[in-house]
Amino acid sequence: MLYHLLFPLRSEFGALNVFGYISFRAAAAMTTALLLTMLLYPPFIRFLQARKLGQAIRDDGPQTHLVKAGTPTMGGLLILTAITLSTFLWARLDNAWVWMVLVTGLGFCAVGFLDDWGKVSSGTSQGLSGRLRLLVEFIISAAVLYVGIYVLQVHNPSLEQPCSVPSCLAPEHMIPLLSTVVPMPFFAGLQPDLGVFYLPFAAFVIVGTANAVNLTDGLDGLAIGPVMTAALTFGLLAYLVGSSAYAAQLKILHVPLAAELAVVTVTLAGAGMGFLWYNTFPASIFMGDTGSLPLGAMLGALAVFTHQEILLVLVGGVFVAETLSVIIQVVSFKTTGKRVFAMAPIHHHFEQKGWQEPKIIVRFWIISIVLALVAVMTLKLR
Fold this sequence. Notes:
Blueprint: H1 2-6, H2 22-50, H3 76-90, H4 96-122, H5 130-151, E1 153-155, H6 165-168, E2 174-176, H7 198-216, H8 224-241, H9 244-250, H10 261-279, H11 288-305, H12 312-315, H13 317-336, H14 346-352, H15 357-377
Antiparallel strand pairs: 1-2
């Protein structure tokens, strides 16, 4: 919003030219999200405590977690509020990518809120049924992706001949906003086009990432650390793929207008830092499904919109490991009657082995940072 109000005045006030720089607006957006969460969480926590909207702890989980029963939950509401307000203030609102990420996050936030509300209102750990939740998540993802692939269009940047404004809007000059190709890391130019199969593939990426983050959210501050790391990584990737010069230099797919997503990604990190101030061990508030589902969905959407779907496996390696540990545990127990891990997801396995909660959290953060750095390094290995 501020871009649209102030940037046109740059000819009269030269200092306002800074609003044209993504780097400036990204830094301001991150700071805004951080300040909003830092200031609003104390009264929000008191509000939840007064209404006894606390977390119910499963009996079959680690016994050390029973003391966390009653800790205020649904903290994700403020995370998404801070992300949305900061984005509205500092991002370009004429950019379709910005709206698609926000709609994805807010849609999954609504699903998570209904799930959390069912738990706190019943005083149990049971919210929405798994099948219903997945169905709604796929519907939201598919709707956003359909708009990006089949409705919204952008001027084709590969055209050699420049065009005037009227002719640029001619059908022969336009391409879908969201391409259906999937670039392969390490192989420059290898970009298979999935065609009609891209939509279900991309929906699976978004829904899978949302639920992977949800599985990771089992210890104080465990999920938000890798979320912030992944968000900043995708912010850099969005800036690079959105620049035709950088994309050509790195031999990666150029995604027109995607650089603006960098402003959105840093709001995830800023809001995450503010939340972590109150969520660090021992947590004063949990994000709940209200936070973990939309944050994961937004990371999945960012991977899809920047066409780094395969690289997401590396950037979100912690989330992948958590999900695989659950799958392996379930398959092993159902087929052999034996458990591979002492408890799944894998962070509970280390708890059962005697690791203290803060040690597990910090080590998982370190792993997520290392994986993010490796993912960025792969951009030069093509």
